[in-house]
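$ run holo --ligand "iron/sulfur cluster" --emit tokens
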Amino acid sequence: MPLTNLSNPLSAESMGLFFKGVKIPKRQAPISLDMMEAPLPARVILPLRQYIGEPATPVVSVGDTVKVGQLIATADRDTALPLHATISGRLAEVTEHLDCRGISVPALIIESDGADSWIERPQEHNDIDSLGPSEILTRIEKAGLVLKALAPIPLGADLIARDQPKTHLSLNGRQVVRRTDTLMVSALDMEPSLAVNRYRAHIHHAELTQGIAALKALTGAQRTIFVVDKHYPPYPQLAELVAADEQEATRIVSLDGRRFPLGLPVPLLKAVLGREVPLPYGHPRDVGVALYDLDTTICLGSSIQQIPQVDSLITVGGGALARKGIVKVRIGTPIGSLIESLGGFSDDPARLILGGPLMGIAQYDLSIPITKDIPALFALTRDETALIGHYRQCINCGLCVRVCPVNLVPGMLSLYCAKDRFETAERQGLLSCLECGCCDYVCPSRRPLVHLFRHAKQQLMEARQ
Ligand code: SF4
Ligand code: SF4
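-- output --
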């Protein structure tokens, strides 16, 4: 039977629910879906905090030898996550180091012994049905998984039940209370030029079934929707899961992955289900959906087998890099070592970005490590970088308003932010901004809009601490 019959695809366009954002040209669409494995780095820098929360507490001392997967820092608070060694070798230093946001955090530095020796892995391979929700959650937390998102948080914290009434949310004056009825697993990446989830959709992963079962057990969702990019068929395992569901409660929705920011939760839920996540501070669970990407779901499946997270799949791209594609890299690898191991630069890099070209954070130091929250590394040439150089005054063209997926007036907001009128910007909806960068992308005056919004949000946050 053809895949399309099995998958029963819908299209967002035909539903007429998603009409803002931008369409990324095909030439900027994802790169090769082949996976490369980065060689072992000579040293890793492991920040004790790779998410929003408290740092983990080290349980090893300088000079100790460690093996891959060994616990090196514990989480003694709910908002912390354990940390594991990602190479074998010697703990060389405990020091402060900058993370990709430019924040100095305590970090452990391990020098490799080149042996890549692992701890003994547990033999216990429990079936998901024999584990209760609390044991599933414990295993996810012990694996140290982080949700890669605008505000990266420990995955376990994101999964804690949200079915109770919430006091800080209201939609048209009503409190938002909704039971989770849908598990949505998305094969779209945050940005069209990222490709890890698209790559994952092509390959069979034994852990995917367990990840889905764990998410259903934790959230109580009765049906599953897979979201795929219509430009990147096939997705054989997803189609098999649809066919195997005798209850017919699993389906595939096929969307145009070149529409941006369709991969972000707020527009995605609106496009697929017509549900609007309340902003600011809303969460997909507030409208009854547990939403996770394919990569996270597969990592979650591995965590059930008690395998700690020591590496990460990231997209590596940009015209200045010699090799591009999907790379499996040990967490803590400095970006300079990673670039060198992939053949270095093929052209002068005008901008180095951790994350995608539209939403990522510019970097100025090659010693910044790859952390669990980072989905991509891009080295852009001058031709690929629209924002380098002087920006001009806003000409009130309104293009940014036409593309903003959450109906803000970015040009006006940017003027308030540039004049340090942060509270006025807040009243105009600043905190609902998804930082998607669509407004930057279309602005003919090349105004650094998202940069101004991030700065303003940071100032508001600091003022309230
Ligand atoms: S204002 Fe925010 S949400 Fe709207 S387009 Fe710009 S970055 Fe995206
Ligand atoms: S797109 Fe740029 S120039 Fe046009 S209104 Fe928005 S900020 Fe102003």
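-- notes --
The first helix runs from residue 3 to 7.
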